């Protein structure tokens, strides 16, 4: 991309990223590879020219007219975006996000011709369970930062050493610091297979997987592929809709009379989600290349990301409350802050991955909501602000070895961001049975 008078590519943005001492954290036996399987230490430093250009573009934003309604029913409100943009341009500090990332062991490795970025934090506890955690859209590895210490160092967070994990947190192809596919084919199935390659390359012969949103699709596809190394999965956006229910939703039928109360609740939540909150997904799934504005305007990108919904509202209640700095419409942001949201949006902007990440929707042919008929052990955590609250009766039909199911008291679609303590507790509890 062109930044002022300085031309540089994504590769030059990521150049010079050798983290001092990071190679010592790579498991023995995988460090000395000389072919494409080498694991290279990674360090983030965005050129100052890119940050200066971002501020220039923010200041030069051409604003639309104010919405003609007193609420956000027409989209993200003008005042919300103007207030956020002023803060982004004058007070927000990306270097703090860089420092948080660089405090962690980060690496790049090539799999099937594509660079894959990942965070790899090993627990100090001897019998820790290896776990690969996958983010979604519009998330990134930044979405998972608050759960790293609770999962790798549980004794410091009210947990037991027996619940410790070695964590691997990759960036999905086309997202963040991972490479951008230049040909078709990087779909959830190929990504799931790449995750198995990654874990084996790190020396892990037995491991579990976790995901929400797009990460749940990749995780469930891994389970469907059932590699022998995969012990089980945990998801916080489960695919559970039975085929007959999916058909009724597609036809626009009312809830069936024989639904239990929780099945009726889920059905109505899905009707709302499919009817009013999936336009962004349809656009990315059908015409991702058309989203040039997201690559050209940081405010356009921010508005697109913020308008992603959850089970409470669109824009997502947690995002709205985080941006406002206080609870909006009764739904708290939890631990999610305005800077968290901007860290994520700024990562998309600086890596120019709005369109490449959108293409993952175009590639995807799996339903994030429909039952998948998974035969390996699976754990499900249902957060109250998720897009829908999956009933246990549906989960039992989708996951034939359902080892854990729990309806959590707080948190939503961005559970790891919003409620990292609760999320970590759910992952520990959900995967505990896999350790024996």
From TrEMBL:
GO molecular function: epoxide hydrolase activity
Pfam families: EHN (PF06441)
GO biological process: epoxide metabolic process
PROSITE patterns per record: TAT (PS51318)
Any coiled-coil regions, as ranges: none
Domain spans labelled Epoxide hydrolase N-terminal: 39-143
InterPro entries assigned: AB_hydrolase_fold, Epox_hydrolase-like, Epoxide_hydro_N, Epoxide_hydrolase, TAT_signal
Family recorded in the similarity comment: Belongs to the peptidase S33 family.
Protein name listed in UniProt: Multidrug MFS transporter
Native source species: Aliidongia dinghuensis
